[in-house]
User: Fold Permease from Parageobacillus galactosidasius.
Amino acid sequence: MIAKLLATDFLKIKRKGLWFLTVLGPFGVVLLQWFNYELVPGRREWLLQRSDDDWLFYLHNVNSFTPPALVLGITILTSLSVSIENETNAWKQLVALPVSKMGVFLAKFTVLAFLLAVASVLLFFFTLLLGIYLDLGSAIPYVEIAKFSFYPYFASFPLLALHLWVATISNNQGIPISLGVVGFLFATYSFKLPDWLPWKWPSLQNQWDEPLVNVALGICVGIVLYIAGMLDFARRDVK
Assistant:
């Protein structure tokens, strides 16, 4: 039945623009770096002179836009996904099926996590292709590109779980949208945030200078928030 719920959810989002947004997010992040390097004549040469490692400097530039894009993407995707059920009054139909409400919540989370994973894969390839186009060097750091593409994804699990939780229990989608706006501002200025705030974790910055700390925190706290949201959703009456 979980497989059927997943198939149904994927079918529902087919014509709702969620796939388009999944592609637009990573493309927009990398496009901003194309503007950064190419829009002003001579700027690429000036940027390349600022670091001994052109690839790493470029990846840090890309990563500076990834956390806000992730938070914005999570906000929009969760809100649109849940609004489909709200607009069609489908919640009662879903829970009337021979599957628990925990299964319904799991299906929603899985679909959204999959969309964000696809966005991370696209970010990897878009980042790689632009780096090759900019001629940053023949020694392509595939592992570092993968880290900057996928680490923020895993570090953002608490935000995904939190937004899905808030979106599923809110009759007014303005509440999760407002939370997303605040989160976007937090992610934009994440370098000023304390290490314990989840909105800082996708930036991969911490006092230990170890990105894996953020990844571990993201996965662990994300699981806790997912379980809390799932249990809360299961005990509530759907409308």
Summary: The longest helix spans residues 101-133. The chain has a mean pLDDT of 88. The chain has one domain: 1-238. The two ends are 22 Å apart (CA to CA).
